[in-house]
Amino acid sequence: MRSPVTRASLVVALEGVVLLLLGLGYGVAGLVGDPFDRTATLLEAAFAVVTGGLLVVVARGLSRIDGWSRSPAVVVQLLALPVGYGLVQGQVWWAAIPVLLLAGTVLFLLATPEARLAFRGLDS
């Protein structure tokens, strides 16, 4: 059975890959389409790609139980909660539910006693 930290790293990696793909798709749409503001569209796409790439790096750190990786993982999930809530308010349920479920899952997994012990360097 996988440890909570390993499962959290898989979820964070999934978030990172999805964000990378969304950013790339948004960038392509901004280049070949006719956006209202091409510069803003491409900057948003670049932000998504960079953030997705960083999430993949954080996921790798989590999988290796590197001490630096827990805080960025938690911060990103805490930032995702108001985003998900805003999507709920905007009635964009198809996006809100995955955002909230994934963020809650990672926060729960990283808060388990086994995960906390792993990051303290103790054997479980």
Class based on secondary structure composition and strand pairing: mainly alpha
Mean pLDDT: 93
Low-confidence stretches: none
Strand count = 0
Give the strand content: under 5%
Tell me the radius of gyration. Answer: 16 Å
Straight-line distance between termini:
14 Å
Number of domains: 1
Secondary-structure element order, N to C: HHHHH
The number of helical runs is: 5
Cα shape: globular
**Tell me about the biggest sheet?**
none
The percent range for helix content is over 70%
Characterize the structure shown.
With about 120 residues, the protein is mainly alpha-helical. The chain has one domain (about 5-120). Helices cover about 80% and strands about 0% of the residues. The chain contains five helices and no strands. The protein has helices at about 5-30, 40-65, 70-90, 95-110, 115-120. Helix 1 packs antiparallel against helix 2, helix 1 runs antiparallel to helix 4 and helix 3 packs antiparallel against helix 4. The protein is globular. The two termini are about 15 Å apart. The mean pLDDT is about 95.
Main attributes of the structure:
124 residues; mainly alpha; 82% helix; globular
